[in-house]
Amino acid sequence: MTTKDKGSETGLAPSRRQFLRGAAAVGAGAVAGTAARAAEPDPLITEVQDWASTTGAGVDATPYGLPIEYESDVVRRTVPWLTADPISSINFTPIHALDGTITPQGCAFERHHSGAISLRKEDYRLMINGLVDTPLVFTYEDLERFPRENRTYFLECAANTGMEWAGAQLNGAQFTHGMIHNMEYSGVPLRTLLAEAGVQTEGKWVYVEGADASSNGRSIPLEKALEDCMVATRANGEALRMEHGYPARLVVPGWEGNMWVKWLRRIEVTNGPVESREETSKYTDTLADGTSRKWTWVMDAKSVITSPSPQAPITHGHGPLVITGMAWSGRGAITGVDVTMDGGKTWQKARLAAPGQDKALTRFYLDTEWNGEEMFLQSRARDETGYIQPTKDQLREVRGENSVYHNNGIQTWWVNGNGEAENVEIS
Amino acid sequence: MTTKDKGSETGLAPSRRQFLRGAAAVGAGAVAGTAARAAEPDPLITEVQDWASTTGAGVDATPYGLPIEYESDVVRRTVPWLTADPISSINFTPIHALDGTITPQGCAFERHHSGAISLRKEDYRLMINGLVDTPLVFTYEDLERFPRENRTYFLECAANTGMEWAGAQLNGAQFTHGMIHNMEYSGVPLRTLLAEAGVQTEGKWVYVEGADASSNGRSIPLEKALEDCMVATRANGEALRMEHGYPARLVVPGWEGNMWVKWLRRIEVTNGPVESREETSKYTDTLADGTSRKWTWVMDAKSVITSPSPQAPITHGHGPLVITGMAWSGRGAITGVDVTMDGGKTWQKARLAAPGQDKALTRFYLDTEWNGEEMFLQSRARDETGYIQPTKDQLREVRGENSVYHNNGIQTWWVNGNGEAENVEIS
Known about the structure:
The structure is a homodimer. By secondary structure, the first copy, chain A, is an alpha+beta fold. The first copy, chain A, contains 8 helices and 21 strands. Chain A folds into 3 domains: 3-47, no CATH class; 95-293, Oxidoreductase, molybdopterin-binding domain (Sulfite Oxidase, Chain A, domain 2), CATH 3.90.420; 302-424, Immunoglobulin-like, CATH 2.60.40. In chain A, the strands form 5 sheets. The first copy, chain A, has a 5-stranded mixed β-sheet with strand order 2-1-10-5-6. Residues 1-23 and 26-38 of chain A have low confidence and may be disordered.
């Protein structure tokens, strides 16, 4: 038992213990937050239920299972006015309903530039060409013969939270912050494949592209390609899903999701960046004076409270309340998260569910009490470089309001006396 | 870049580099293992493919996604002669096709005693009674108000590998070792809920039961209940699946899966074990002399090679070969895995994909060469207590052949010259 574990054994505030002990005592038949039932026995306890007196579904029911019907709202969602073209656009991870750190592939957001393609392993080819000693073509089976790594990383779209540059727009964490997922990848380090081809001295960049019609070409400095990029074939233990690049995608830890090329088909070693459409007219930040910043790859430290939030209101009345959310940084591990309930007047240190991991999601909790007063909830992440997540106003001071990408500003949820939450901005 | 990372950049044996560089060179148009095509250009490289010239599936296609059709063999499977009664029986995780450490809920094995029940959160109740100061009933919403933890643990059925006591029986890692999964759980420490009720001095055990018809009651020493057990509501970030105990199950880290009671409805604090059906006539080990060992809860250190294996033969010919598998211990972290290719005459240290974690799966790899000779593949795990996974013969010397449960013996796959694998035993 660790010291932290002991903490939760004894660390309950007296008021929390009082509350739940009183409200849920068996003798009274009462249940927290439902005082109206206090005088009646609970038939869910006193009567034999159908599910305890008949047999349920057998093991042959679902060779590959799906969530239970009661969780049918925990799905990827689109924003109709944002995604007029369903082929080339985006949907969002239901982060308001998730806990922990792993994102199941089934509800991890999608972003396509020309739709998700169906590519068999047998038809997969990966070419390495350009400034190499020996241009190579790998089949899927070839990839399986190289030493593999396992690493857990977040992937965040550069446009995540992008609509919020103009002020509070979308009323839900899924829509403001749901272009992110976090998975355990298995694959071959890109440096291994590049070493196989033999990078020539003049090679300073790689240009990577996918097998889909968009090709989504991006330039990556050789230094990053050799540091920690992977050609991943599996996520969360199983094959990549079609919509995430089956059978192989590039993993570019900590850098914007657009660079994680799906259905990866070619890596060209070059002596300079290609300056493709996806890295010039798109995925750059236009500043207040109309000029655009070049090469804004790293996703800076960011966090968001996922519950309570507009899609996850407080429904249980006053007393004990768990506030939770997630934090991440493209520059390394999260070292701390602070939470405020009063719009930044006072901050409390959140509890991290586990020590921050390099370029991966960290789950945080604040175990607190709610007396029914309105709250202005915010979270603020810190990473191992010492960087602290800025306010939206601080971002606008530097970048103006012409940007779409790389909005890592502090998010505010206003929670009213009924426990309902709204996306707001405060200054 | 860590030292280990650097290793995979430069650590390829000359033969591996030679092989792949030669075989996959673009100029020759050849691909590893398919020398017959050497003289012809590869149309998958030289011709524009359909998937690169049309748009694919859009983001609205799958609000909750499933694996691509080409992975339709990566599913839970039953063994017909073993699972005559589909309601009360088992299926198996397709571990031969997985990598990494996380098991997706969709293909994580099921074991039911009276079928999987459909229980709404609104109808969920958890009672704590017996030797407590205040008997309590918690709703699902109550559980959500207590401080939560996140932990990744393996769950192994006590009967995993049970058929193999009688010698090699089932021809596939899925069937010999697939009653295991490994997930990230979020939930409330059991000690927190017990503290809320107030355990009396005479309370030494808890008796836990589920809401299904079987109730599957099990006794657990209070010490374990307070140490690391959890009432989990989520796995791998999302709600538990129906077949894994939605909306709440018990997590009993490192201990046999039968104790991880699903649809958890009651926890009674007692002064001794109940000695229920599930812990007397079932889930005990009958020894050679006909007597049964009492209380065999911990799943000892174990490992298995998942590829190559009977369902995952070598299909790519001679040369570089990745051997992979997984290891786990109910007594703590895995500290090492050895692999032999010659039935135990010589052993090599496998590469762990990450340092072993407490009571969680560890992925191991041996990056080697195969010259086409037959192999007798085995893996042997070591845990932080110094315990070393035994041979099946060593287990039988102590326990005879009457057992069904707790077979953690070393598994052998015989690989023939064609790369096909079979389940065999060698002495």
